[in-house]
Amino acid sequence: MGKNKLIVITAPSGSGKTTLVKRLLESCPEVEFSISACTRLPRNGEMNGKDYYFYNEEEFKRLIEEDAFAEWEMVYTGKYYGTPKAELQRIWDKGRIPLVDIDVQGALALRASYPGHCLTIFIETPSLEVLRQRLLARGTETPHSLDERVSKAAYELTFAPHFDRIVINDNLDTAITDLNRIVEEFAGN
Ligand code: 5GP
């Protein structure tokens, strides 16, 4: 496969992906988180340039015009998200593998743009009800945005078979072991 590999992880919101990704990054030094750009507001504790590059809509649209994104999308109503090309390059320049955490459409778009260089992984939750409970427990959503996230998750689940690998996040330790094995195998090739 050669250079410039890319790992794309997709999971419905509330699937526990953030914890999984964090654990994966701790144990795989050759993999680095690719920071996306977005126009939603930072959540409590999120930092610009660490969790996301936060932009307003006008700035984001200018970046689209400048062809700065490997892919971009309006993921939620009025909220744009995108993978900056410069971010992928920054990581490749260090000889590392970017790990991109994006939604289904973004994942499929990246695979189409970088054919043969991507490992696509889908993280499944045991059920939509478990997912709804996890989102409720997180306490970051309004009733409307909670429903929007659960419906999007139901839709995204139908795409799981298009991914190279599926990891079920039922038990965190099992999921992290699976994920590590899959990523190490890809990184080592
Ligand atoms: P959140 O608002 O919870 O941080 O993210 C919402 C959704 O946006 C998640 O499904 C996440 O994977 C997706 N997302 C994050 N960054 C990107 C990106 O760069 N491109 C696309 N297409 N989706 C993204």
User: Any idea of the CATH class?
Assistant: Alpha Beta
Instruction: Pick out the low-confidence regions.
Output: none
CATH topology-level fold name:
Rossmann fold
Strand order in the sheet with the most strands:
2-7-1-8-9
Number of domains: 1
Fraction of residues in β-strands:
15-25%
The overall pLDDT, averaged over residues, is: 92
Shape: globular
Bound molecules: guanosine-5'-monophosphate
> What is the architecture at the second tier of CATH?
3-Layer(aba) Sandwich
H/E topology pattern = EHEEEHEEHEHEHHEH
Structural class: alpha/beta
Describe this structure in words.
This protein is α/β, with parallel strands linked by helices. It has a single domain (6-188), classed as 3-Layer(aba) Sandwich (Rossmann fold). The protein has helices spanning 17-27, 57-65, 85-93, 104-113, 128-138, 143-157, 172-188; strands spanning 6-10, 31-33, 36-38, 52-54, 69-76, 79-84, 97-101, 118-124, 165-168. Strands 2-7-1-8-9 form a five-stranded parallel beta sheet, sandwiched between helices. A four-stranded mixed beta sheet has the order 4-3-6-5. Strand 5 and strand 6 form a beta hairpin. Helix 1 (17-27) packs across helix 7 (172-188) and helix 5 (128-138) packs antiparallel against helix 6. The longest helix is centred in the C-terminal third of the chain and has 17 residues, at 172-188. The mean pLDDT is 92. The structure holds guanosine-5'-monophosphate. Guanosine-5'-monophosphate binds next to strand 5 and strand 6.
